[in-house]
Specification:
The structure is a single chain. This protein is mainly α and about 290 residues long. The chain has a domain of about 150 residues: Serine Threonine Protein Phosphatase 5, Tetratricopeptide repeat (Alpha Horseshoe), CATH 1.25.40. It is built from 10 helices and no strands. The relative contact order is 0.03. This is BatC, TPR_1 domain protein. Keywords: Coiled coil, Signal, TPR repeat. It comes from Flagellimonas eckloniae.
Length: about 290
């Protein structure tokens, strides 16, 4: 029984020792990888100082892949991108550095620079949040505090401009609606005027039609006289050579041509008789001249 317990204890000890050795080995490998990563970071820093960006970028990437404990490599690469105005790449590397950072100092620097990227892209609301996170890790940093105040001011200005733009858009939309209503009213007025003109023309035509009807409703004697005359002419188509007085029938209350001719002849006859009487008187009263005796 004792031997059994001793055997179990020995086995447990051996297991713990093996696990410890594995952990020690892993730690040594991590330290080795971190050292290699740090060395690559130093090399990249030198190349960046020498303005060899491509080699520096390559070494920074190798350093980042070597160890996930090295927050300096992604931070420095992000700074290099930021200085070259590649703000999208810079933000990604600053975010990576903040996630890898184990100290508040490193976290503060990462969030501060993320705030700077947001300021460049005019994303002021995100910049405010990034600066706030940076101050949570280092409340005494005056530069971050100043940047936070500036971001808040720019955010307020941006919101005011957006509000003014929205008001202007609303005003423009309202003006467009008013103009549409005005055009519609004008079109409606034009249609009404056309309809009024159409009704007026119909009334005028109707009035003219009534006048025409009134012309047809002349006194019956005129119509009957014309009708009788036409009927007489139709009944006597071969009387074209007959005297005018037989062809022309007098209209009631109107002298025919023959009656007028008769009156004129009667007047001429009367005038002729008067002249004959006057001539007769002149002859009767005239002295006869005696022939002279020679």
């Amino acid at each position: 029984m004792y031997k059994m317990r001793l055997l179990l204890g020995l086995t447990f000890f051996i297991g713990l020792n093996a696990q410890a050795q594995e952990e020690t080995k892993a730690l040594k490998e991590a330290e080795k990888a971190l050292t290699a990563s740090t060395n690559l970071t130093w090399e990249a820093n030198k190349q960046l100082t020498a303005n060899d960006f491509l080699m520096a970028e390559s070494d920074y990437r190798r350093a980042i892949s070597k160890s996930d404990k090295n927050a300096t490599a992604p931070f420095n690469l992000g700074t290099a991108y930021y200085n070259r105005e590649s703000f999208g790449e810079a933000f990604g590397r600053f975010k990576q550095a903040g996630e890898k950072a184990s100290s508040k100092t490193d976290k503060h620097k990462s969030f501060h620079n993320m705030g700077n990227v947001f300021m460049k892209s005019k994303e002021y609301e995100k910049a405010v949040e990034a600066y706030k996170e940076a101050l949570r890790n280092n409340p005494t940093d005056e530069e971050t505090r100043y940047n936070l105040a500036l971001a808040k001011e720019m955010l307020k200005k941006q919101q005011d401009e957006q509000k003014n733009d929205e008001n202007q858009d609303n005003k423009d939309n309202q003006d467009q609606e008013d103009q549409k209503d005005k055009n519609k009213d004008q079109n409606d007025e034009g249609e009404n005027e056309k309809n009024d003109e159409g009704e007026q023309n119909e009334d005028e035509n109707k009035d003219k039609g009534d006048e025409g009807d009134n012309g047809e409703n002349k006194p019956e004697e005129n119509k009957e006289g014309e009708g009788d005359e036409k009927k007489e002419q139709e009944k006597k188509p071969n009387e074209g050579n007959q005297p005018e007085e037989q062809k022309q029938q007098p209209r009631p209350n109107q002298l025919s041509k023959q009656q007028i001719q008769n009156l004129l002849e009667a007047m001429q006859n009367e005038e002729k008789k008067v002249q004959e009487k006057m001539e007769a008187k002149k002859v009767k009263g005239k002295k006869i001249k005696n022939e002279k005796d020679w």
